């Protein structure tokens, strides 16, 4: 469809009008009840008949909307928000009776540029690696067979069947041909679960043919569970056929889906319009990149397919935990409040009889199995001690990342990590995004000027809360900020040393008697209200016990000296004064970042309370810093909790 500048369109469908972020999907179209420029409807299905008839009678263009090929995590009927739709002004991709915008795109894609080809290949590889499909309902199942030949049934009423010039006889002929082509193989018939349950009707069940070689699969399996073992797949118009092509399977088409007729499939029908050969990458680029439109389900803004691949894979991974009975009684009221949205994400139930208990950080152990919770590495705009809403948390079943005395889940991740080219590129882009957005853990302070000497090495020593567990369990030798400064000055007598007290200490929330500037005479300057990003950009080295500032320094290409054993030390990226014998491999910066910022934490959007990605979190924090968004808090409860904290401080 040509890009029409704000065309007014008439819409008869309430469902279309209720699509979340619709304006971001179709910014060129303005739905107006009295419009007479065009009519919009949902594909060529029977539900859109009124819109098509109206358009035909009025001589108006008809614009068809449909779900994209990477739609959502979950089914649309269950309320899953669509991340992708297609907009077609000449037909619709699943109806071969007429040309469609997708067919035109494929015809016109005579040759991809090197950049386009690489992009298509990369996305195809990522979809396979992350096991993604249209709806992404079931990432793992109990299906354990390894079929070689699969015949895909579809449900009656599926508009893509009629649009593919097929009917009941087509499906029967397809099943017979599969049996004929593979006389010594079992033929697995993939039947929709609702068909076996009697909720829907299929074309091939009950079986029209009696043959003991036909085996039924009615589980809601991930398509890739089939495609890992399948050599031949038979379909009329199912999207699984194109996914099978991406998996290197021989695909036999008995209808005319959008991917048939281009020399990629064994076709039983022909289309005179599809008179050229196209590669898998050309069809993918046309369908998944040019034809489909993507909108971030959390931010509500247009985005690219790469963003959706990352979003789907992260949400599926974070959602994969089984329902757990866990005792939360050890957590304070404040912690439970801040955790409330994460508990839904982690699917915990509040069962005091559970054998599993949750503790915050490195608190005392109990007789139960302990899962520890702590802030993530990109947390908030504002301090945790001031009840700023956390954007990320970690749930560690082994230990906790700042305790170097025992193994944590993060350490296990690093020891076992093997990331793909897709993940490496994502980590590299993530580093660039963090630096450009100037995002750190707490995102407090300002960008005030700072005069520094020329010709000297500039060292940053970030102050820490000396009573913090990360020092008790991660820095066995140097345990105070003053001792650290003395050691740094001893080793670097001619360097210019900047000392920045911890923001919790400056706020008067922690270490109340340890905020005297005269205590830190080894520093050339003490800075207090400059944000960490601005400071890191101006220094040459970071010297720390266990502060996250060391990690943030690595992201900005700084030399980092560690005097304790923080999670990012011991992997060959830092200058370490201690050794951890468990950390036996070297990591790249991309691997370090991918483990710490993608795999380890859980992110929940501070506005909508949906699970999200680290990239979406960075965008939200940037919006919050600019004053464009506010977090969803129960303001009454928040005020009560703040008052309780103030009362506790006074009594101390």
Sheet with most strands: strand arrangement: 2-1-3-4-5-12-13
Q: What oligomeric state do these chains adopt?
A: single chain
Rg, rounded, reads 29 Å
Distance between the termini: 68 Å
What gross morphology would you assign? elongated
Helix/strand/pairing category: alpha/beta
Number of beta strands: 26
Low-confidence stretches: 648-652
Average of pLDDT? 87
Kindly estimate the percentage of residues that lie in beta strands according to DSSP: 15-25%
Total number of helices: 23
Main sheet: strands, sense, barrel: 7 strands, mixed
Fraction of residues in H or I helices: 25-40%
Question: Brief overview, please?
Answer:
With about 650 residues, the chain is an alpha/beta fold. The chain is built from 23 helices and 26 strands.
């Amino acid at each position: 469809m040509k890009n029409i500048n704000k065309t007014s369109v008439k819409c008869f469908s309430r469902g279309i009008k209720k699509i979340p972020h619709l304006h971001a999907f179709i910014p060129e179209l303005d739905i107006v009840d009295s419009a007479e420029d065009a009519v919009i409807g949902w594909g060529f299905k029977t539900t859109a008949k009124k819109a098509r008839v109206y358009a035909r009678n009025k001589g108006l263009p008809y614009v068809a909307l449909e779900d994209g090929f990477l739609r959502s995590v979950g089914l649309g009927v269950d309320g899953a928000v669509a991340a992708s739709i297609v907009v077609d002004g000449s037909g619709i991709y699943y109806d071969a009776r007429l040309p469609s915008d997708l067919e035109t795109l494929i015809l016109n894609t005579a040759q991809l540029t090197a950049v386009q080809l690489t992009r298509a290949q990369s996305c195809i590889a990522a979809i396979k690696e992350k096991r993604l499909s249209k709806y992404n309902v079931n990432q793992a199942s109990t299906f354990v067979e390894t079929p070689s030949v699969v015949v895909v049934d579809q449900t009656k009423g599926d508009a893509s069947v009629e649009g593919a010039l097929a009917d009941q006889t087509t499906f029967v002929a397809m099943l017979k041909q599969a049996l004929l082509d593979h006389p010594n193989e079992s033929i697995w018939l993939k039947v929709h679960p609702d068909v076996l349950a009697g909720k829907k009707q299929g074309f091939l069940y009950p079986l029209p043919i009696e043959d003991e070689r036909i085996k039924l699969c009615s589980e809601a399996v991930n398509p890739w569970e089939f495609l890992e073992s399948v050599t031949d797949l038979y379909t009329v118009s199912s999207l699984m056929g194109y996914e099978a092509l991406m998996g290197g399977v021989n695909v036999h088409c008995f209808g005319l889906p959008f991917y048939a007729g281009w020399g990629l499939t064994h076709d039983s029908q022909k289309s005179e319009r599809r008179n050229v050969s196209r590669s898998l990458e050309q069809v993918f680029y046309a369908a998944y990149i040019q034809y489909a439109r993507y909108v971030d389900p959390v931010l509500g803004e247009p985005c690219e397919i790469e963003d959706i691949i990352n979003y789907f894979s992260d949400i599926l991974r974070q959602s994969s935990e089984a329902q757990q009975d866990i005792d939360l009684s050890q957590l304070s009221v404040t912690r439970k409040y801040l955790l409330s949205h994460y508990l839904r994400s982690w699917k915990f139930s509040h069962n005091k009889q559970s054998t599993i208990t949750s503790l915050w950080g490195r608190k005392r152990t109990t007789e139960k199995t302990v899962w520890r919770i702590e802030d993530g590495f990109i947390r908030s705009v504002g301090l945790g001690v001031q009840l700023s809403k956390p954007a990320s948390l970690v749930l560690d079943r082994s230990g906790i990342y700042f305790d170097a005395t025992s193994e944590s889940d993060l350490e296990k991740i690093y020891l076992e990590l093997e990331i793909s080219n897709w993940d490496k590129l994502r980590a590299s882009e993530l580093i660039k995004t963090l630096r450009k957005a100037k995002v750190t853990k707490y995102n407090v302070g300002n960008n005030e000027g700072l005069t520094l000497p020329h010709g000297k090495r500039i060292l940053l020593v970030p102050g820490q809360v000396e009573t913090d567990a990360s020092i008790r369990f991660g820095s066995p030798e140097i345990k105070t900020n003053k001792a650290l400064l003395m050691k740094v000055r001893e080793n670097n007598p001619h360097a210019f040393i900047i000392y920045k007290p911890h923001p919790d200490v400056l706020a008067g929330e922690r270490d109340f008697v340890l905020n005297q500037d005269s205590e830190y005479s080894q520093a050339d300057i003490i800075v207090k209200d400059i944000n960490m990003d601005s400071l890191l950009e101006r220094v040459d080295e970071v010297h720390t016990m266990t502060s996250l500032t060391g990690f943030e320094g690595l992201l900005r290409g700084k030399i980092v000296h560690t005097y304790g054993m923080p999670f990012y030390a011991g992997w060959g990226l830092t200058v370490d004064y201690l050794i951890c014998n468990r950390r036996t491999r070297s990591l790249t910066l991309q691997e370090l970042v991918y483990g710490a910022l993608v795999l380890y934490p859980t992110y929940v959007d501070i506005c909508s309370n949906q699970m999200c990605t680290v990239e979406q979190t960075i965008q939200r924090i940037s919006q919050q810093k600019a004053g464009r968004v506010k977090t969803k808090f129960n303001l009454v409860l928040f005020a009560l909790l703040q008052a309780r904290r103030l009362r506790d401080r006074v009594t101390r």
